[in-house]
Automatic annotation (TrEMBL):
This is Thioredoxin domain-containing protein. Pfam families: AhpC-TSA (PF00578), DUF4369 (PF14289). Gene3D superfamilies: Glutaredoxin (3.40.30.10). It is found in: Cell envelope. The keyword Metal-binding does not apply. It comes from Sphingobacterium ginsenosidimutans. Keywords: Cytochrome c-type biogenesis, Disulfide bond, Redox-active center, Signal. InterPro entries: AhpC/TSA (IPR000866), DUF4369 (IPR025380), Thioredoxin-like_sf (IPR036249), Thioredoxin_CS (IPR017937), Thioredoxin_domain (IPR013766), Thioredoxin_ResA/DsbE_sf (IPR050553). The keyword Thylakoid does not apply. Residues 230-379, 605-757 form the Thioredoxin domain.
């Protein structure tokens, strides 16, 4: 107990006055308790707090508790741990003595003695109890850890049944000890949390005035009294309170609507975790005569925190508060003892439900209002994640309903978050979790690739393993899940090879930075190529399964989006056939329009089309124009210095060039090396292919980081993979396409033999 240095006379007078007021004494001794350890005693709501350090004789607390003000106190050894665990006990104290002794420093081993206060506690601890409840809670914790939803639901029912059995036993305890304040223990800890206040009222009517003359029982009686005024079936009590701008808002202002009065606070973790469910309900039913009215239990000086939470959690409905914390006048009026809490009011102002959360709120609103009607183009994302990496933000990138690229984020609160956006049709999105400081991840595995559209998308799983995150609730995303599940086994088999490839690639980068020889670099490239060869069968299996799905489901947003990855390797006729089977909605979508453009480009780069002319400065800074080579067979070789298959194919091209040059054959290399002309020229020299013409692709980058394709020579030919070769006849008509949606090198050899009759 903390003491100040005072005069002897003052101490004597104070001690005498204190002794006269003291009527409750708590003493005891805890063996082996460290001498510097503090012991705390604090009241639940009366503000009394005290602390002592144990002496050789033990510890002692002296209190003055007036008649009728007996209450629960927290008796605690040391500070509470971050996990919420504490070495403590909840004890009921009124006028009297209580002695607590333990052979260890742990209160769970303590014995309570000294009179009626100990009797109350011991009676409660020794009462009849159901068996197996602790084991069920352990199993429930394990099921949540394993994300076993079926087991969670089963165990929750068993736990509810056990708690109901215990409540029956505790009601019998109350009747048996109806003349003793001992009833305060079961009334406070097991019975007051039930929704059936009427039966609780009936139970208390049988208890003596002496048993009821304490703070906890009086609080329960107040709740019963208030429930008679604010219970289900009663007309909601009127109130007025200020909104975020200081304007007065009354419950009467919402007459004629279904109103969910939502009691919450910015500092309340369970409230913040429940907010995404309220956001979802509001967005679904706000167009069906439903709204939410928030009542915040934030404290004086917390207005900014309150406003920040409203903005962060997307609480786009009227918000009221007097910033008095638990003394919020509306909360007191409705006797709100815990938050989150809510009341559902019907259009006539009658309370029709209480404390609806999660799916129960959705179910009740659907029962009352029918099918949801959301605002046009509205997207709601609800996230509930495990957060071992302490991710504090969910970041998302997509194209919105106005065609604008969106880069947005929303804060994660205790593993829960919500996001509101506008999107017109099924759209691909990218997401990732971050701490708000480190920027975007560098690894592809840390990104989520998913589909959004108007509706509600649910995200759950481990934030540190984005590839295993579960996304559901939207039609297109559910289809994308099916699409991805086709290749799960192949993806799993590729994982170690991908890791090996990344490691080797890092080794290559390190060697390059160290200025290693060409021989060493090429050796490492060969290793990388070997891994790619090992990956090839699985990659082909993936492509086969995916393309098979696309052919079976042509009129699908997923198929339209994924087909772009096959444009360069699929026969043009087959590609056109799939496109022809798409309905107007898919064709008019962004992906459908892009696919139509790609088909047009492929056609312009396929046999039968006139080759698109281009011009520019060649590798020797001399003008080059494709149409000036009319009268010759021209092979356009789309390649790059960094393309290993391209470089490996150059010796064969040298043979073809040597064989057919004098017969009217020319090669023009079009290199994808605009960002590194030096590497382009070096590769031309190393591979000794400077004997034919060379020009860059012409792809530019804007200051904003976007691509400028106005002079891109690959675009008109539908080039998506390297190497790709286009053979043009003397009249400027394309007569062959090889690689990138066309034939093979063998096909090219055969075509040239036919042309030149060799």
């Amino acid at each position: 107990m903390k003491k100040s240095t005072l005069s002897f006379l003052f101490l004597a007078l104070a001690s005498q006055a204190f002794a006269q007021k003291t009527n409750t004494v708590l003493t005891g001794k805890l063996d082996n308790l460290p001498k510097d350890q503090w012991i705390y005693l604090s009241g639940f709501g009366n503000g009394q707090k005290d602390s002592v350090q144990q002496t050789e004789k033990g510890f002692r607390f002296d209190l003055d508790i007036p008649e009728g003000e007996g209450d629960f106190y927290i008796f605690q050894v040391g500070k509470m741990k971050a996990s919420g665990e504490m070495n403590g006990a909840f004890i009921f104290l009124e006028k009297g003595k209580l002695n607590i002794n333990s052979k260890t420093p742990m209160l769970k081993d303590a014995k309570y003695s000294g009179g009626k206060l100990a009797d109350y506690y011991n009676l409660f601890q020794q009462r009849s109890k159901v068996t197996g409840l602790d084991a069920l809670y352990d199993q429930f914790g394990e099921a949540r850890k394993n994300k076993d939803q079926d087991q969670i639901a089963t165990l929750r029912k068993k736990i509810d049944n056990k708690n109901a059995e215990q409540a029956t036993l505790d009601k019998s305890f109350v009747l048996k000890h109806k003349n003793s304040p001992a009833i305060v223990y079961p009334m406070f800890f097991t019975l007051r949390n039930g929704d059936d206040l009427a039966s609780l009222d009936e139970l208390l009517q049988q208890a003596s005035p002496q048993a009821r003359n304490n703070v906890p029982i009086k609080a329960i009686e107040h709740s019963i009294k208030t429930d008679k005024l604010t219970g289900i079936g009663r007309t909601a009590l009127p109130f007025t309170q200020a909104d975020t701008l200081g304007n007065k808002v009354s419950l009467a202002d919402f007459q004629g609507k279904y109103v969910l009065i939502d009691f919450w606070a910015s500092w309340c973790v369970p409230c913040r975790m429940e907010n995404p469910n309220v956001v979802s309900a509001f967005q679904q039913y706000k167009n069906k005569n439903f709204t939410v009215l928030g009542i915040s239990f934030d404290y004086p000086g917390q207005q900014k925190r309150w406003l920040d939470a409203i903005h962060s959690d997307h609480l786009n409905w009227p918000q009221l508060s007097d910033l008095k914390g638990w003394k919020n006048e509306v909360g007191v009026l409705y006797d709100i003892k815990s938050i989150p809490s809510n009341l559902l009011i019907d259009p006539n102002g009658v309370i029709i439900a209480k404390n609806l959360r999660g799916e129960h709120l959705d179910k009740k609103l659907a029962e009352l209002l029918g099918a949801p009607v959301m605002d046009k183009n509205t997207l709601v994302i609800k996230g509930e994640i495990e957060n071992p990496a302490k991710a504090s933000w969910f970041n998302i990138r997509y194209t919105d309903a106005a065609g604008k690229k969106v880069a947005d984020s929303t804060q994660i609160f205790n593993g829960v978050f919500s996001y509101l956006g506008k999107v017109q049709a099924p759209t691909q999105a990218t997401g990732y979790f971050s701490d708000g400081k480190s920027g975007a991840p560098q690894s592809y595995e840390q990104y989520l690739q998913f589909y959004i559209e108007p509706g509600i998308l649910q995200i759950s799983g481990d934030a540190s393993s984005p590839q295993e995150i579960v996304l559901s609730g939207l039609k297109t995303q559910d289809e994308f899940n099916t699409y991805n599940n086709l290749i799960k086994s192949e993806i799993a088999a590729l994982k170690p090879l991908n890791e090996s490839y990344n490691n080797k690639n890092n080794e290559y980068i390190a060697l390059k930075k160290q200025g290693a020889s060409e021989e060493a670099l090429n050796a490492k490239l060969d290793e990388l190529e070997k891994i790619k060869e090992d990956m090839s069968p699985m990659q082909q299996a993936i492509r086969d399964k995916q393309f098979s799905y696309i052919k079976k489901h042509p009129n699908s947003a997923v198929s339209a989006a994924q087909l772009r990855f096959f444009v360069s390797s699929v026969d043009l006729a087959e590609l056109q056939s799939i496109y022809d089977q798409m309905g107007p909605e898919i064709r008019n979508s962004v992906n459908g329009q892009e696919l139509a453009e790609e088909i047009t480009k492929l056609k312009s780069g396929s046999p039968g089309s006139t080759a698109t002319d281009f011009s520019g400065m060649d590798i020797n800074s001399k003008p080059l124009k494709l149409s000036e080579y009319r009268g010759k067979y021209v092979l356009l070789d789309f390649w790059a210095s960094w393309c290993v298959p391209c470089r490996k194919g150059n010796p064969h091209l040298l043979q073809l060039y040597s064989k057919y040059k004098k017969r009217g054959f020319e090669i023009i290399g079009v290199s994808d090396d605009d960002s590194n002309p030096k590497a382009w020229k070096k590769a031309v020299d190393q591979d000794r292919i400077g004997v034919w013409k060379h020009i860059l692709r012409g792809l530019k980058t804007t200051p904003q980081g976007d691509f400028d394709k106005s002079e891109d020579r690959s675009e008109a030919y539908g080039i998506h993979t390297l190497p790709t070769k286009i053979l043009i006849d003397p009249n400027g008509v394309i007569v062959g396409r090889y690689g990138g949606g066309g034939g093979s090198d063998d096909d090219l050899d055969a075509k040239l033999k036919t042309i030149f009759k060799l």
